[in-house]
Amino acid sequence: MWLCFNAIYNQNTIQIITIAAANFFCASFGIIQMLEVQKWYKDFGKTCQIPLEIDFNPSFSSLDIPLVVVLMIFGFIMAFLSWKLYRQFGWNIYKKIGGDIQKQAMFRTYLIYVMLLKLDLFFILGLALEACTVFKINLRVKPTSIKHIRYLPKPFYLFHIAVSGLIFLNQIIGYRSVKKEMKLGIIYVCVFWVVIIIDFGILLYYSIGSVKDSWYFFIIFLIVGIIMTLLSLIWSVFVYKNFGQGLQDHLDQKNKESSANNNNLLLVSNEKRWSIED
């Protein structure tokens, strides 16, 4: 909800389109989750000393399928509204940036980067915190085999805890760096994106184990997290290359002009009100 209002307020068309795509992703994940629950029902029955046929609760499908359908409907509605807003905001961006194609491309890169930071704040941070509860620390002397899919060796677990604690700080530095065009800050952010990719790669390695014993939903989330982190790294490099090209000065100038126009309108309205009172 906050991302939707934020996208409309900032007229970020890229973010609006991404939110629409996220609704379709949630619907698809609902289908995967339903299939996985069915799988674990059957596997649980097979692990008993006397194999049992555990019937899958039919009410689960009756509750989960309508939820998936509703998400798909909202996804189509959001896609339609995104198209309408894209046309309107496209014109507003043209008035704000002008007809310079290079400036427009740099501004789109800026919008995509900011959008990725906002998504990472929810998804990457949430995924990292979830991994802290999914995995348990392995205190044994010998390294854990990958068959222990719920355990991490102590050094990897502590490494993940440290990375999780720094993700929020990395988001703040990334946002401030792109607003102020701080090259050193963006370099730090790029290095930390690489660290997060390594961390998620380790989690993915210990999550896969044997295919039939794996948690599909967590594996999919880790893969999506690695892709999002890689995209954030790539766009960090893009915005770094755009520093010093005049985009921030142009935006600051437009914001000052817009603020001055608003102040003038306020003064005019006050003068009219005073004349009426006289």
TrEMBL record:
Key words, A-Z: Membrane, Transmembrane, Transmembrane helix
> What InterPro entries does this protein's entry cite?
UPF0658_Golgi
- Cleavable signal peptide: none
Gene Ontology cellular-component terms listed? Golgi apparatus
Membrane-crossing residue ranges in chain numbering: 12-35, 65-86, 110-137, 157-174, 186-208, 214-240
- From what superkingdom does this record's organism come? Eukaryota
Q: Does the keyword Acyltransferase apply?
A: no
Protein's name in the database: Uncharacterized protein
